[in-house]
Fold each of these.
Amino acid sequence: MTVLQGLGVSEGIAFGPVVRVGRGVRPPESEPTSPDAEARIREAFESVALDLDSRLGSVDDTAAAILSATAMLARDPSLIDGAIARAAAGSGPATAIDGATREFMEQFIALGGYFAERATDLRDVGDRAIAAVLGAPAPGVPPLAEECVLVAYDLAPAETATLDRTKVLGIITEAGGRTSHTAILAAQMGIPAVVKVAEAAEFVDGDLVMIDGDIGSVHLRPEQATVDARRARNARRADALSHLSGPGSTLDGKQVKLLANIGGVEDAVAAGKCDVEGVGLFRTEFVFLSAQTAPTVEEQTETYRQVFAPFDGRRVVVRTLDAGADKPLAFADLGAEENPALGRRGLRLSAERPDLLDAQLEALSIAATDTGADVWVMAPMVADAQEAAWFARRVRENGLRNVGVMIEIPAAALRSTHVLAEVDFGSLGTNDLAQYTMAADRMQGELAELLDPWQPAVLDVIAEACRGAAINGKPMGVCGESAGDALMALVLAGLGCSSLSMAPARVPLVRFALSRHTFAQCQRLAHLARSARTASDAREAVRAEVSADLAAIL
Ligand code: PEP
Ligand code: MG
C-alpha cells in the first residue's frame, strides 16, 4: 500500500477502482493540409459547443453557467480564426486547432489568475475540437459502467459539472487548487475529491484506491484492514451525525448559524431542503457567467424570486456581482488588466458601473418584498470604510435593510472597527483573505500551502476583523471554504464568528463539532492555533485538543 498526500477539497471517503480520464487524441504527425479545412474547423468547434449546450438541461444552475461559459469559448471567433489562419498557412486541420489552442492557453497562463484557470477549459475545448475534426471519440470522462474513482490531470469545470453522481465515488487530480471552481463544484455535489496528487499520473485503470477528502490522503492499493477502519469510521460518523439537527450552537448554547453557499436557483432548491438556517453566500455572478448583455431588472427579479422562495422565513445573504479577475462577466468588462486579482473587480467594478449595481439592487428589493425570505445584501472586495459607506447608502436607498460587506481584503479586516461601523454585518471571505494576506494566487495549485487558511497570519487577520465587529456589536460570519472545515469552524467560533456558511454537505459535521465544545473551549482552540508557528502546526494543535467523540469521527 502506498499513501500519497494531496489537498482534500471535498470531504468524505471513496474507495473503488480507478478510471482514467483521457487527455484526448493528438493530431497526427505531419498531418496533410485539407482543401475544406476552414469548414471542417468551424464545424468541429460548433459541434463541441452544441455538445456542451445539449447537456445544459440536465444539470443545475452552477453547472449550466459553467457549461455555457465553456461553449462560449468554443465559439470564440479569435480562437476559430486563429486555427483557420494556421490551416491557411499550411497546417492540417487538427494541427491548426492544436496550435491555435496552445497559443491562446499560453496567453491565458501568462495573464495568471482567472485566465490561467480558464486554460484548463481551453485545453478541454481544443482537445474536443481535435477529436471532432478527426472523427475520434470525444476526450474526457469515458462512459462509466461501474462505480469508480476518476483520475485526471485536471478536470475542466464543464466535465466536473456533468459527472454522473451515481457512478463517480471520488475524484483525484494531479493539478488543481483548493478554491478552483472544480473543487467548489465537487464539494457542492458532495463528491469526495483530492487534488494536487502528482503521483496519480502513474495510476492505471482498475487500480484500487481509497481517498479521504477531509485530510487529502490517497491510499493506493490499501490493505483491507485500512479500508475497513475507514469504513467503520464513516459508519460511526454517519451514526453520530444522524442524532443532531437544527440550529448550530456550542455545547453551552452560544449560537453559530449554519448557512449554505449557493450559486443559483438549483442550488437554492437543493439547499432549501437541507437542515440549514439559510444562505450565507449567494454568488450572484455565477447566474450570469454566460450572459452577453446585462440582465434586465425583470430577468433578475425572476431569478432572485426563485432563489429566495425555498427560504421562506430564513436568512438569504446575497452578494452583489463579484465580477472581474477569476469571475469575468462579458457585460461588465472593463478591459484587460496587468493584474486582474488586484484590479477593478468586485465593488470597484460596481463603482465604475453603478447602473449594474442599481439594477441588481432594484431587482433584489422587489424579489425580497415578494417572498418571505429575510434578504441581506453584501458587497464583495470592500477595501475601506469609505467604500462600505458608499455601498450601504446605495443599498438602503433601494429599501433593503440589512447591508454588509465581505471582509476579504486584509486592509478591511485590519480596519474593521471603521468598516463595520458603516454597515450591519461582515462576512469573512477566507479564500481571498488568504490569497491577499499571503500574496499567493488562489488559482496557483503550487502555492496551496501558503493559501492554507490555517496560516497563523491569516488567523491573526481574521481575529482582528472579529475584534472590530465586536467593538461595533455587529455580527461577523464566514463564507469562505474554511467555514466547512470542522476543526477550523471551532477556531472561527472561538474568534467570535456568529455564522458559518459552506457547501450544505459540510453542515452536519460542523454542527456536531460545535455541539461538543463550549465557547470557552473554542476560544482556547483559537488561541492554540494562533500561537502555532506554521499552518500544519496550527491544525495539529487543534486536532490534538478536540473532544474524543469528535476526534473519533474525523
Ligand atoms: C472568498 O473569497 O472567500 C469568497 C467566499 O468568495 P469567492 O470564493 O467567490 O471569491
Ligand atoms: Mg472572494
Amino acid sequence: MKGYALITGASSGFGEAIAHSLANEGYSLILAARRTERLESLKEKLSHLPIHIELITVDVREEQAVIAAITSLPENVKDRIEILVNNAGLAVGRGPIDQGISDDWNRMIDTNIKGLLYVTKAVVPYLKKQTHGHIVNIASIAGKEVYAGGNVYCASKHAVDALSRSMRIDLVSYGIKVTNIAPGAAETEFSLVRFKGDQDTAASVYEGYEPLQAQDIADSVLFAVTRPAHVNISDITIMPTAQASASILHKES
Ligand code: NDP
Ligand code: 8X3
C-alpha cells in the first residue's frame, strides 16, 4: 500500500495536475496552498479514488504556520509521507533590476526559497523514517539560465536548483531521493500572477506556439517517482518544442 505525497501549491497549475497523477497512481495526498476552497474542490474531484486526502491551508512563507500544519497532521498520516513535492512558487513582475519593486522581490524570495526550505525542514524527519523517501523540487529553466527582466525570479530558481543538489548530498545516507524538475514555458496561472492580473499580457506569453501544459510536468513527476528503488532521476529539464532556451521561443506570427 502506497503512503502519502505532500504537494505544495496544489490549488492550481502544476500542483493540481501532480495531485491527479499521484492519486491515480495510488498515493494518498496531503494538499497544501492558501486557497482552501480550491483544495476542497480538488479533494472532491478525487473522491472516487480509494485514497485518503488531507488538506493544509498554509502560506509557505510563514515558518511557524508551516511547522504547525505539518505537526498537527494525524500520526498515521505524517508517519507515512513518502513524497514531498515542493511546487508552491511564483514570479511577480518582470523588468530591469533598477526598476524592481522590493515587495515583489520579497514575495519571490520568501516563497520560492524560504518557503521551500521551511516545508522541507518540517517534512524531512518523516521522510527519514521511510525506506524510500523522495523530494521533488519544481525549479525552472530560469534556474538554469537567466533572461532579460527575469533577475530575481531567475535568482530564486537558481537557488532551488542549488538546494536540490545540496539536499541530494545531505540526504543520501537516508536513502532519500531528490529530483529537480526545470520546466520552460507552461500555460498555468503563472503569468496571470506574474503580471498581477493583467489577462492580456499573461495570454500573450503563450501566443504563437504550443506551450507546455500542467499535465506535461505531472507526467515528469510521475516518471521520477515511479523509478525502481535504486534509480534516482536527478534532474529533468522540459521545454515546449518551440522553446530552445530560456529566452528563445519560436513564435508563429
Ligand atoms: P500557478 O500560479 O498556477 O500555481 C502556483 C501555486 O503555488 C498555487 O497553487 C498557489 O496556491 C501556490 N502558492 C503560491 N504562493 C504560495 C504561498 N505563499 N504559500 C502556499 N502556496 C503558494 O503556477 P504554476 O503551476 O505554473 O507554478 C508552480 C511552480 O512551477 C512554481 O514554483 C513556478 O515558479 C514553477 N514554474 C512554472 C512555470 C510556468 O511556466 N508555468 C515554468 C517553470 C517553473 P495559492 O495561491 O492558493 O496559495
Ligand atoms: C517559469 C518559466 O521562462 O517564465 O519558471 O521563467 S519562465
Amino acid sequence: MVIYHLSMECFPVAKVGGLGDVVGALPKYQNKIPGIQARVVMPWYNREYVRSHEFESVFEGWIHQNQTPYAVEVLKQKDSTLGFELYLVRIPGLLDRENPYGYWDESQQYLAFQHAALHWLSAMSRKVDVLHCHDSHTGLVPFLIEHCPEFEPLRGVRTIGTIHNGEYQGQMHWEMLSYFPPVRDRAHLGLLDWDGKINPLAAMIKCAHAFNAVSMGYMEELLVDFKGLECLIQMERAKAYGIINGIDTEIWDPQTDSHLPYHYKKSTALEGKAKNKAIVCEAFGLNPDLPLFGFIGRFAGEKGADFLPAIIVESIVRTYGALNIIVLGSGDPGLEKTLEELTLKFSNFALGLGYNEGLSHQIYAASDFLLMPSRVEPCGLNQMYAMRYGTVPIVRYTGGLKDTVKDISSGGAGLNFTYASSEACVEAMLRALSLYQQVPTMKALVHSNMDFDFSWERSAKNYVTLYESY
Ligand code: ADP
C-alpha cells in the first residue's frame, strides 16, 4: 500500500508545532509495517535542512492559477535517513519561502501546493493507494481529485483527512475559485462551501472517505463545538474517528537526546534531571534548589498563554517565591512584551523568546512540572514528551489531555484542573508543590511517568487499519 502524506510541516525540515512532529514520525513508523510504503510531500522551504541536504529533481511542469502560469518542480531527498521518501514541491514566487505560514497570499500558496502535488502524481501516473491530508491546508485534495479532470488518474483514490487543529479552517472568498484548477461540473461546487465561503476543512470532512481528530477527547468536543462546523461533523459522523498521536521515541529519548547536556534513564533519572536543571537554571539565573515549572508553546489563546502573566505573579506571590517558572515560546506580541517585563520584576521567572528546539528538550528534561493551561488541545504532545523525560504534567482537562493525563488523586500521572483560568492553574501548582515535598511519592511518579508507552507503533497501525477499511 502506497501512502502519500501531504502536509505543510514535517520535522526536521520545517516544524511550527505538533503537525510537524506528527508528519515527521507517523510515516516512519508506518514504514515499519510490512507492505506499507509511506511518503511525505510538502512545500519547498528556503531553510537550513533543505540547503544542507541533497535533493534530485524528479518532475518539472506547469500549473495555472487565475490564468497565470507557474513553474513547478518536485525534488526528492537523495538519502532516506528520515525513514521515508521526502518530496518537496517548489514553485518560484509561491513555494520558495522561509516559513510555512504567515504570508498575505497563504490561501493561494496552499492551493498551489495541493494543485502542484496532484498534478505531479497524476502526470507521472504514480501508484497511489492513499492520500492522507493533514489539516485545512491540504483539505481540498479529496474534492480536487474527484471533481477536476486534470487529476483523472487519481479519481477514486482513498483519501483520509486528519484534523490536527480545527481552529484554522482556511476559509477564503469565492473569488478565489479562479485560482482553482478547472472543475468538471459546477453543480458540485457546493461541496466547497460553508457559510458562504470556500472552507477547505469543511470540504475535507464532506469529501474524504474518512477523517479523524488526533484524540478521541478532541473529536467528542468537535461534535459540540467546532467553530460553526458542528452540524456538518454530526452529519458526517459515520466516517469520523479519533486516533491519538504518538511520539517519536527515537528522537525523544533522554538516554540519547543530543540536545541534553546530561543523559539519563529511569534508574538515573533523579540525578540526571537535577544536573540538567542546574545547567538551565544557571543559564537563566534561577535558583536550582527550587522546583521548576516549565511552559513551552505558541503564545496563542488555544494554549492558554494569556493566563501566563497572572499564573506567574499569583504563584510566585502566593508561595513567597518558593518556585521557579520558565517559559519558552513566541506569538502574541503584547504577551511577549508583558512577559519580558515580568522577568525584570521577578527573579523566579525566566523567559526564552522564539522557537528553540534544543532549549525545548532541555526544559522538558530540567523541569519538575510542565504547565499546560490550554483552552483547546487537540492532542498535545508536550505532556507526552514531559512524561518521557520524567516530568509531571499539570494540564487543563480538555481534548487529548483528557485522554493522556489522569490526575494523581485517581492514580494518574499528573495534575488536572477543569476550568480554563489562571486561578485553577495556580491551585494545581500549589498541589504540585506539596507533592514535590513528598519525596518518595514524587520520585515514584518520575519513574512511573518514564514507563508510559506513547510510541507511534499502535497509532500507526490504527491509521493503516482505517485506510484498509475504505
Ligand atoms: P501545537 O501543534 O498546537 O502547537 P502540540 O502540543 O501538538 O501543539 O506540539 C507542540 C510542539 O511544538 C512540541 O514539540 C513543542 O515542544 C514544540 N514547540 C512549541 N513551541 C516551541 C518553541 N518556542 N521552541 C521549540 N519548540 C516548541
Amino acid sequence: MMQIYNTQTRRKEEFKPIEPGKVRIYCCGPTVYNYFHIGNARPFIVFDTLRRYLEHKGYKVKYVQNFTDIDDKMIRRANEEGITVKELGDRFIKEYYTDADALGIERATVNPRATEHIADIIALIEKLIDKGLAYACDNGDVYYNTQAFPGYGKLCGQNLEDLESGARIDVDPNKRHPMDFAVWKAQKPGEPAWESPWGMGRPGWHIECSVMAKKYLGEEIDIHAGGEDLVFPHHENEIAQSECCNGKIFSRYWLHNAFLNIDNRKMSKSLGNFFTVREISEKYDLQVLRFFMLSAHYRSPLNFSADLMESAKTGLARICNAADSLKHYAGAAKEAEMTAEEMTALEEAKNLAKKFDDAMDDDFNTADAISVVFELVRLANSNVNENSTKAFVQSLLDELLELGDILGLVFETKEEILDEEIEKLIEERQVARKERNFQRADEIRAELLEKGIVLEDTREGVKWKRA
Ligand code: AMP
Ligand code: ZN
C-alpha cells in the first residue's frame, strides 16, 4: 500500500488516485527571472522522483509544471537588462531546461507559461466576479473576496481571523478584508500589460496555477506539490479560487518539501545565500546534486555544505563503480546454469527490490531507498567474481540500474571526454548557430555540460572549461 503525507490532513494517507491507474500531478514551477538555485531544485527533483516512482508502479502520470513568467521580479530584472519580460522569460526557460535535463528531471507532460494563458485567466476572474467571489476596484485591481469562501485557511489549518492576526499585511483601502488578494493588477507606468474588462493590467500570481491546472489536468487533480513556503498563501489561494469556481475538491493530496538550508537558514535569492544549479554544475556532475537531494526525506530540512556534497560524490561513485564492475563481469562471464549460492543471492536481491519499494511506498522515503541501493551494492560486491554466471551478474546489474532509473540516477562512471572531441563539438555548435539551428546548438551545449564541460560565449569566441 502506498502512503503519502497530506499537508491538508497532517497525516499519512493511503494513495488512491481519482481514476484508477492514472495520476494527475501539478507542481508549481520556477519564476523564470534568473538561473534557478539549488533550493528551487529540491522540489523539482523530489517531485520528479515521485513521478518516476508512480510510473514504475504502473501508473500513467500526467505531470504539469508551470513557468511563472510575469511578476514584479520578472519586470524588475527585464528593466535592468533592458529587454522585454518575454525575452527574459524565453532566455531563462531555455536555461531551466539545460539545468533540469542535466539533473535528470524528466520533461513535464506540459510546462505552461502564465503569459500564454491570459485569456483563460481573464475568463476565470470574470467567473469569480459573477459568483461574488471577486470584486473589481475603481483603479482596475481585482481582488478575491476571502470572506465569501468558508473554507479559506483549510490547507494550513487556520481560519480567516487567525490568519489575519498572524499576518503582516499592508492596509489597502481597496480591500474589503485584509486577507483578500489580487487576482488582477492594474498596470503601473512602465509595466507590461494586457487588455481586460478592468482596463490594462496583468494577472496576480496565484490565479495562473488555478487556471493552468484546470486547463491541462481538469477540475480535480490527484497531487499538488511545491515547496513548503507555498502552503500559505499561494496554495491556500489556489484552493479558494478553484474550489469556489468548480464546486469540487481541487486536489486530493497536497505535498510539500522542506527547505534546503545553508547554515540552517532557508536558501533564497532574497537572503543572497544561494548557489545556482549552474554554479554547482561547474564543480560537480549534476547527478551528484540529485543524489545529495534524494539522500534526505523530502519533508526533512536539508542543510547544504561542501562536505555533504563531497560525501554524496563518494557515495554515488561507489554505486557507479559497482555497476561498472558488474558490467565488466557480465561481459566476461560464462553462460552456465546459476549455482545454488547465486540463486540464494538473487533471492536476497529480489527482497531488496521489495524493500526499496516499501521505503518508497512510505511517503517516498528516498533516504531509506538509497540505503537499500547500498545494500544491493554490498551484496553484488561480495557475491560476484570472475567465476559468476552471466545470468546472475546480468540480473544484479539490471536490478541496480532499474533502482537508479526510478531515482533518476544513471549509475555509470562518466567517460572522460578528450580535448579534441570537445573542440569538434564546439565547432559543430558554431556551424549550427550560423545556420540558426539553435536546437542543435543547445543540444551540444547540454551534451557537453553533462560531460562536465562548461561553455562560455565571449567576445573572443567560445571558451570552455572542465567542471
Ligand atoms: P520560485 O521560483 O521562487 O517560485 O520557487 C520555485 C520552487 O522552489 C517553489 O516550490 C518553492 O517553494 C521552492 N523553494 C524555494 N526556495 C527553496 C528552498 N530553499 N528549499 C526548498 N525549496 C525551495
Ligand atoms: Zn502554483
